[in-house]
Every structure is written in structure tokens, then in C-alpha cells.
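Shipment paperwork, digital attachment
Item: protein structure file
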Amino acid sequence: MQQTILLLSDGTIFPGTGFGYLEPGVERTPIAEIVFNTSMTGYQEILTDPSYNGQMVLMTYPEIGNYGCEGRFCESGGIKASALVVHDLYDGPVPEGRVSLSAFMEKSGISGIQGVDTRSLTLHLRDHGSQNAMILTYNDAKELELAKERLASFPAITERDLIADVTVAEPIVDPLIDGSRPEHPLCRFALVDFGVKRSIIRELYKRGAAVTLLPSTATKEDVMATGCDALFLSNGPGDPALLRDAVAMVRSLIGAMPVVGICLGHQLITWALGGATVKMKFGHHGGNEPVYDHLAGRTFVTSQNHGFMSDPKSLPAGVKIWYTNANDGSIEGLIDEERKVASVQFHPEASPGPHDASSIFDRFVQMGVAK
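Attachment content:
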């Protein structure tokens, strides 16, 4: 009898019902690191966020899909997450002009599973940590054992290069966002694309900043050749410790121009400044993370999506901690005013999530203008 389950690398099984596009056969079933996201809405933005490349998303909110999907909610050209896990998939009517979440995923070739005890699964991941998993539709015990063997041998996210699938292939000057570009820019950022969200570029455009997108393999010479005012390092998937060439490029430009970064960009700046990053047990994924601003002396709520963080013990003298997480004390931002470097671990552009931190883009643009 055919069954559909969520299989974790530690052997734990969660039964459910498949939806979207279900890949037949044990050998072709996608494997990804499963992480839980606490956002109540924004499932399409989450699925299309390039930072989720190589990861399977578990939504903790019980009902997902109730307002459908449409193109303007996408943070990239399509779904980047490997799969979706939900408790209850909404299958009723959606607003005119939209399609159901299941249809959106099926068209994209992405699988999902519903009917899962997501509360129990979230607690399991919180206690045991994020790990590889697969959504498996199988017929007998032999297939299940083959799946367990394949899952056990699959590399961890710390061993995978996930950037190549989400970066631009060649430079792009002022990509169209919402059908427009900045007309009279105040400054121009060389934005190295490790999987940038459209909302980041949108926030820069709103403030009169122009953007030259560069591939993740960009060198110091590539950046300098653009004639840009400042360097911007985007968000992206995977372990920053694997991106040694990118770290070297950033290090070589610190002091030569203002350098700012978000999420993975923040982690690369951590390495470039002489620090290091470490893997978190289950990371921060959601729209309700409180962050303390050490410069302004206030706390606000942020949107976050990361599984690595700056190691506080590794930071050299002169690097100031700008933000910390009010829940666990982890570093959420760094600033070096003398060398004009600033970075944040969270997502000030939100999408989805609160916009409490959007003023950070004002500071970034001011750094580009002042250069």
C-alpha cells in the first residue's frame, strides 16, 4: 500500500498526505535540510526566497495557503525552497487572479506534505536540531530502507555549495523591479548577488539608490570596474565558511569603499573583519524575532532567516556589535564606523514580516552617498 511520509535523517517518521509535485521513486526524491518558520503569512515570499535553496520549510502556523499565490509576491524568479511541510493545506477558493498554493507548487515541480503533526515536528527540531529530510511516497519496507540509506549518506548543508543556482550569471545594471528603475540615483551599489531578494533592491530604489548586480564570483577588480560608490553583499543560502574567495574579495575592499551586507552578507563581513561564524542548532526563521539596537538603545521586531551566526568570541578589537537578539543574545549586526562597514543578520526589507527595521536602508544609502 502506497504511503507518503516525512522522513528525517535521524530515522523519525511523520505521516501525511502529499501535495504539489510528488517526485516518484526513492532515488529522485529531493533531500534538503528541514527548518521551521514561525511566520503566520508570507508563504509565497518564503518559498521564493533564494536563501532557502537547499532547505525544506516547515510552517508552524497551522493553516497555510488561504489567500493563494500570485506573481507580485515572489522574491525571485520562482520557488527556491526544496519542499514545504504544513499541518493543514487550504484548498478552498482564492481571490481572482491568483492560483492555489498546491497548483503553484505543482507547476514549479516542488513537493509538499500536509496533515503532519507540525507542533510535534517543530519541538523535535528544536530539541534535536535542523537536519536533512525527504518527503517520500513509497510502497513497501524495502523502499523505505533504501530511502533511509540515501538520506544517511546525503551531505549536510555545511558541505554543499548552494550559491551557483541562485546568483546572476553576468552583471546587470538596475534590474527592473515592479517595472521601474531609479531615474536620478543618489548613489550606486555594487550588489554582489548570493541570492538577493527582490525586496532588497526595491528598498534601495525607494531611497534613490541604483544597483549593479554582480555574480557571486565577483573579484575586487570586477567591483572596482563598476565605478560604484559602495559594496552591498546580499542574503543567500548555505555556509559562509565555504565562500573563501568572496571573503577575500570583501576583505580587500574594506577601507577602499563603504561595505554593507544583509544576512549571508553580514556573515561574510564577519569573516572579512577577522571573525568567524558557527552553525546554529535550529536557526532563526520567522517574522517575530526581537532585536536590540545598541546604538539607539531600543528593541524592535524583525524578520529573519538564517542558520549560521557570528561567533562572538572570534571578533577582533575595533569591531562593534550593533545589534543583538533579545531572546538568545546572538549577534544580529556589526558596525565599524572608521572603516565604513555595517551589516545586519536580520532582514530589514521584511517580505514577509514587520517593517520596523526598514530605516536601516536609509543608513546604508547615506553611507553610499557620503562614501
